[in-house]
Write a structure and sequence with these properties.
The chain has helices at 12-23, 34-41, 52-73, 75-88, 99-117, 119-127, 136-153, 163-180, 194-200, 204-218, 237-244, 253-257, 276-289, 302-309, 324-334, 339-351, 353-361, 366-377, 384-398, 401-407, 428-447, 450-463, 472-492, 505-529, 534-542, 544-551, 561-580, 588-599, 624-637, and strands spanning 411-414, 424-427. By secondary structure, the chain is an all-alpha fold.
């Protein structure tokens, strides 16, 4: 059988070296020469169990001869064509060992090395005849997509497939991703027409749903405890081999996950390393979705179009749908561990109106918001693109009134990631304000990114009008930050209106925008929910001097008018109570009592009518120009697909 013998090879390195030497030689190889192909097919253990660096050395020793001699022997083309033929007729249930996975693994290493060292030769090889009038790259991608659909269909929940199918799925995805990456200018650039070929492949319109199905399933798979040594370090591949040999055939896919990475890349502190198959699936989904054809006659992105039509299949077994509840739950569990998961959430939110509507209707928004807030709390440690995506997701959610309403009903018993103060029994909307204020203020002082500031302030403004019972710590943070930024603005701007030489126009813009938006937020809270925000009123009284300073500035006179009326009203009643106690200062408890009593007599009719600010996110028409480099950067940082 073409899939090879089930007997294990005693020395896979010598077998691979022998195979590559023959392939790189001067003798012509025929597709029908089973003796040659069986050298690799007879290796029953997956090559990915070993550190990739060792395989790179073996490939590097032969790659020069392989490229040069293939101009006459066409052995590399024969190798790629032979593999395509195997994939075209693949039946997962007939796999008896990892031979075909190993073939794909070696092809990926050869192609990846040629991309950087022999790019022009690789283009010529991929453009050569692949039989049937199509190019070799067309045949390779079409056969890979066909095989991937076959493998993934056998990997959906409730369908049992052999372990060999799990490894083959992973290797096919890594091979396709490697083909899609061209290192000409640091972007995912479809130099060789790979992605266009993928879009023309039969079954591509089904692949989006299949890959999302697999991503949901693969994310449940984690590193088994048996693979962790007592000191917490991840076992090396070599040490794991000896201990797992007897039980390997019965291990579930999660055990195989460990075999996909090099031992010298192990980092037990990085939880994203526990989900290799999920990361690889996510990369493939994102690469396909954000592809824009550069051909003269543009090839339609059928993958992206198919994402638009996916429906919730939580109550059916229809494989043309995905379970929206499971997808959201999975995203929530992965956000803090994987940057690609954030982009995947954004992508499906923007790309599928049914999923968007489902997310906006969910009341347990904490499953998404809490991981995002945790990441944003120390956003300076993350890439700016990651922070952008997280903040955009928050802005998208904040466009709907349901976020503020639902987050006001969710009480978090404790928040371990907020280190400034101990938070207990805090509502989600108050936590959102604490974190967003931190992001805005820190960005103003250090990062000074206008796009980040705009989205952060927009989210604050969208949520503000619906907030009730803002937590005392959040109220203090809100007014304290306003005071600090106003003081900073006083330092930036000279009395004659010029800018202090120590600052620049961007500093003015960031600070003035912050003050203006926070005043709008305070105004909205007062207009809509003054009777439900006694803590906020107390903080306003505490910062009355700051409010008076801001009101004195002509540019803020209109927006602060209602705030001023409220401050004057409650200040008068506090003063009246103090006079009743012979002018003695009131305790904080006494002031709070005055506020509670005075709220009952408050008449909102004294306030000036105002219109709430409402911001919405508008996706750029050429969003691929932003997201494609971002995807490549994620792949570069991933240990699963090592590229230069």
């Amino acid at each position: 059988m073409w899939w090879g013998s089930s007997s294990p090879a005693p020395d896979p390195f010598s077998k691979v070296s022998e195979f590559l030497q023959i392939l790189a030689g001067t003798d012509l190889i025929e597709e029908s020469d089973d003796n040659i192909w069986n050298i690799v097919l007879s290796i029953s253990d997956p090559l990915c169990r070993f550190a990739q660096g060792r395989w790179n050395d073996v490939v590097r020793e032969n790659i020069s001869g392989l490229v040069q001699n293939s101009n006459t022997t066409r052995n590399l083309q024969t190798f790629l064509s032979w593999t395509a033929a195997r994939l075209e007729t693949l039946q997962v249930t007939m796999l008896t060992n990892h031979g075909l996975s190993n073939v794909i693994y070696l092809q990926r290493l050869c192609v990846g090395m040629m991309m950087t060292d022999y790019s022009s030769d690789l283009k010529g090889i991929l453009a050569s005849d692949g039989k049937g009038g199509s190019s070799l790259v067309d045949r390779m991608t079409a056969s890979s997509i066909t095989a991937l659909l076959e493998v993934c269909d056998q990997g959906t929940p409730g369908v049992k497939r052999p372990l060999e199918g799990d490894v083959l799925e992973m290797e096919l995805l890594k091979f396709i991703i490697t083909l899609c990456i061209f290192e000409g200018n640091g972007l995912l650039k479809d130099e060789m027409g790979v992605l266009d070929s993928c879009m023309k492949s039969p079954g591509m319109d089904k692949l989006a749903c299949v890959l999302l199905h697999r991503w949901i399933h693969a994310t449940k798979e984690t590193l088994p405890k048996a693979w962790i040594e007592e000191d917490g370090d991840v076992c090396t591949q070599e040490s794991a081999l000896s201990s797992m040999t007897k039980t390997f055939v019965s291990l579930p896919w999660q055990a195989t996950s460990m075999l996909t990475r090099a031992a010298d890349d192990a980092n037990p502190q990085d939880t994203s390393n526990l989900y290799p198959s999920a990361d690889i699936l996510c990369f493939a989904i994102l690469i396909f979705y954000y592809h824009e054809s550069s051909a003269k006659k543009a090839v339609p992105n059928v993958f992206r179009e198919s994402v638009k039509t996916i429906q919730d299949g939580s109550k059916t077994q229809d494989h043309t749908m995905i379970s929206f509840p499971m997808f959201v739950d999975t995203i929530g569990s992965r956000l803090s561990a994987s940057e690609s998961s954030a982009l995947l959430l954004y992508t499906v939110l923007q790309g599928n109106s049914s999923f968007y509507a489902y997310c906006m209707a969910r009341t347990d928004v904490d499953i998404i918001m809490v991981p995002i807030l945790q990441l944003l709390m120390d956003f300076e440690k993350r890439s700016l693109t990651h922070v952008y995506i997280l903040m955009i997701i928050m802005l998208i959610f904040s466009e709907e009134p349901s976020l503020a309403q639902n987050s006001g009903d969710i009480v978090l018993k404790s928040v371990s990631f907020y280190k400034a103060r101990q938070l207990k029994n805090i509502k989600l909307d108050s936590l959102m304000y604490l974190v967003l204020l931190h992001v805005a203020h820190y960005n103003m002082l250090t990062t000074k990114d206008m796009y980040l500031q705009t989205n952060t302030l927009a989210t604050l403004a969208n949520v503000g009008p619906a907030i009730r019972d803002l937590h005392p710590i959040a109220c203090q943070k809100l007014l304290n930050t306003l005071e600090k930024v106003n003081d900073r603005l006083d330092k930036i701007e000279n009395s004659d209106g010029t800018v202090n030489h120590s600052f620049g126009p961007l500093d003015v813009q960031l600070a003035s925008d912050f003050v203006n938006i926070i005043l709008e937020v305070l105004n909205a809270m007062i207009v809509h929910n003054i009777s439900s925000n006694a803590n906020l009123l107390y903080s306003l009284m505490h910062k009355k001097e700051c409010i008076d300073k801001i009101r004195a500035k002509s540019q803020y006179r209109d927006v602060s008018e209602n705030i001023g009326r409220v401050v004057e009203y409650f200040a008068e009643r506090i003063e009246r109570k103090s006079q009743a106690h012979h002018g003695s200062p009131l305790t904080s408890e006494a002031i709070q009592d005055v506020i509670q009593d005075s709220i009952k007599e408050w008449r909102s009719s004294v306030l000036k009518p105002s219109v709430d600010l409402k911001f919405s996110y508008e996706e750029e028409a050429s969003n691929s120009e932003f997201f494609v480099p971002c995807i490549l950067d994620m792949i570069k940082k991933s240990p699963w697909i090592p590229i230069k």
